[in-house]
């Protein structure tokens, strides 16, 4: 009985210490990720919801790279070139940051997470000098309308009832 | 209203068609050096319904001209256009996607010159020997290196009878947007695959309309197929039976 009370007390103390731990986590620095130039919507971010992109961007890029190189499919939504065009923006000095700098969108977070990528050993790490960039709002809306799950949220549904002709 | 739009479009199409025919350059009677390429939509894969090829007329390859090589260098940032890149590599190590080859008959002294690049073989030896599958041929006949899985073994460079491939020995910076290239991988002419996918011509062909012609070898109605059917086109090292996509006249 006595032993049981003691072990309960120890358990409570340990639990209290564990609960207190997050209080010390407050001063861990978070990465200062540069903002993209444009956004489709506040809620959805650019090409897909922000949470989805944070978790799965590498899968989308990897899938798209094989499609593009091996089959010649050149859609812009998952293109690395278009990510860079929008997400890598000029620093206060008016120049584009190189990959590896804290001001570069990709490296700011990858450095923090200690995940090494080698995309930019070959790929250009700054935007292309081209006017034909991905347009987040239009292209993203188009992709929303083509996926069945997103129909309810899409603002560009055809208002006229189907089959009605004059 | 819809009908009127259709009519306007049709009229516009006819006008553009005539304009294209009128602005074409004749390289021989009945052979026009112009082709209205059909662009695939971006979400469609390349198919084996097409096979892209280049026909080079060596007789029109002018002495002292370097336009095709310069155009390629500018488009992809190698050679004289590579800036600080490849500074430590010797000329024989530096990338060379296309070169002008001069051949002289020792007996007669007759000299010929022609551009030589990846010949985009139907049965490419580089693809045969690649241990990882990085060396590959697209459905439409364009031979490429998938640098994502290239391990830099350079077997393909050994296998290529045209010496068309280069290996990158140094870290590169500030690459051109359409030319992802880096240390430890092999590269070669891509027949300007991203331009072709947009319905444009390769940069070298655009720079030298006098001696170079690009088109679909599978379409008997294309300018290149007609020119080949009428005047023929030789392969370099035809004895290897590789059925190259790049053909030559006047060699």
Annotate the secondary structure layout:
The complex is a heterodimer of chains A (166) and B (251).
Chain A: H1 2-24, H2 50-71, H3 80-87, H4 105-113, H5 119-122, H6 136-146
Chain B: H1 2-23, E1 26-28, E2 31-32, E3 52-57, H2 67-76, E4 98-104, E5 111-117, H3 125-129, E6 135-137, E7 143-145, H4 155-159, E8 166-167, E9 186-187, H5 193-197, H6 203-207, E10 212-216, H7 223-231, E11 246-249
Parallel strand pairs in B: 3-11
Antiparallel strand pairs in B: 1-2, 3-10, 4-5, 6-7, 8-9
Structure in words:
- The complex is a heterodimer of chains A (166) and B (251).
- With 166 residues, chain A is an all-alpha fold.
- Chain A contains six helices and no strands.
- Chain A has a domain of 94 residues.
- Chain A starts with a helix and ends in a 20-residue tail after the last helix.
- Chain B has 251 residues and is α+β, with helices and mostly antiparallel strands.
- Chain B folds into two domains: 34 residues; 208 residues, Alpha-Beta Plaits.
- Chain B is 24% helix and 18% strand.
- Chain B has seven helices and eleven strands.
- In chain B, the strands form five sheets. In chain B, strands 10-3-11 form a three-stranded mixed beta sheet. In chain B, strands 1-2 form a two-stranded antiparallel ribbon. Chain B has a two-stranded antiparallel ribbon with strand order 4-5.
- About 8% of the residues of chain B have low confidence.
- Classes of the chains: A mainly alpha (166), B alpha+beta (251).
- At the A-B interface, α2 of A face α5 of B.
Short description:
By secondary structure, chain A is an all-alpha fold. Helices cover 46% and strands 0% of the residues of chain A. Chain A has six helices and no strands.
Order of helices and strands of chain A: HHHHHH
| Residue-averaged pLDDT of chain A | 74
Question: In which range does the helix fraction of chain B lie?
Answer: 10-25%
Estimate the helix proportion of chain A, in percent: 40-55%
Q: Main sheet of chain B?
A: 3 strands, mixed
Oligomer: heterodimer
Structural class of chain A: mainly alpha
Overall number of strands of chain A: 0
Question: How many domains of chain B?
Answer: 2
CATH class of the largest domain in chain B: Alpha Beta
Radius of gyration of chain A: 24 Å
- Count of helical stretches of chain A: 6
Q: Catalogue the unreliable spans of chain B.
A: 19-37
Relative strand content of chain A: under 5%
Radius of gyration of chain B: 19 Å
Number of strands of chain B: 11
Q: What is the distance, rounded to the nearest whole angstrom, between the alpha carbons of the first and last residues of chain B?
A: 57 Å
Major protein interface: A-B, 20 and 30 residues
């Amino acid at each position: 009985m006595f032993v049981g009370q003691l072990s309960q007390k120890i358990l409570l103390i340990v639990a209290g210490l564990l609960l207190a731990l997050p209080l010390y986590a407050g001063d861990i620095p978070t990465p200062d990720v540069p903002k993209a130039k444009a956004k489709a919507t506040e809620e959805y971010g650019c090409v897909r919801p922000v949470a989805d992109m944070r978790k799965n961007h590498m899968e989308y890029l990897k899938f798209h790279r094989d499609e593009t190189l091996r089959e010649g499919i050149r859609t812009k939504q998952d293109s690395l070139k278009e990510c860079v065009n929008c997400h890598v923006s000029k620093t206060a000095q008016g120049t584009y940051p190189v990959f590896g700098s804290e001001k570069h969108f990709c490296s700011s977070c990858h450095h923090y997470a200690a995940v090494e990528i080698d995309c930019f050993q070959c790929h250009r790490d700054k935007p292309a000098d081209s006017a034909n960039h991905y347009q987040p709002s239009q292209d993203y809306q188009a992709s929303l309308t083509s996926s069945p799950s997103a129909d309810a949220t899409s603002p560009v549904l055809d208002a006229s009832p189907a089959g009605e002709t004059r | 209203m819809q009908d009127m739009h259709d009519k306007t479009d049709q009229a516009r199409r006819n006008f553009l068609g005539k304009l294209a025919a009128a602005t074409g350059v004749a390289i021989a009677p009945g052979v026009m050096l112009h082709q209205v390429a059909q662009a695939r939509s971006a979400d469609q894969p390349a198919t084996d319904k097409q096979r892209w090829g280049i026909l080079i007329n060596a007789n029109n390859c002018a002495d002292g001209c370097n336009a095709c090589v310069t155009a390629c260098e500018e488009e992809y940032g190698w050679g004289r256009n590579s800036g600080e890149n490849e500074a430590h590599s010797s000329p024989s190590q530096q990338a060379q996607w296309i070169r002008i080859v001069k051949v002289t008959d020792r007996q007669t002294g007759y000299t010929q010159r022609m551009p030589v690049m990846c010949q985009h073989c139907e049965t490419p030896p580089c693809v045969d020997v690649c241990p990882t599958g990085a060396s590959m041929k697209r459905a439409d006949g364009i031979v490429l290196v998938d640098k994502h899985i290239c391990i830099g073994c350079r077997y393909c460079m050994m296998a290529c009878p045209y010496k068309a491939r280069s290996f990158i020995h140094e870290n590169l910076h500030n690459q051109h947007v359409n030319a992802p290239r880096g240390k430890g991988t092999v590269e070669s002419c891509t027949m300007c695959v991203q331009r072709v996918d947009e319905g444009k011509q390769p940069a070298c062909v655009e720079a030298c309309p006098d001696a170079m012609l690009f088109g679909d070898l599978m379409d008997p109605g294309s300018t290149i197929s007609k020119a080949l059917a009428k005047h023929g086109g030789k392969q370099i090292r035809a004895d290897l039976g590789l059925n190259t996509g790049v053909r030559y006249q006047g060699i």
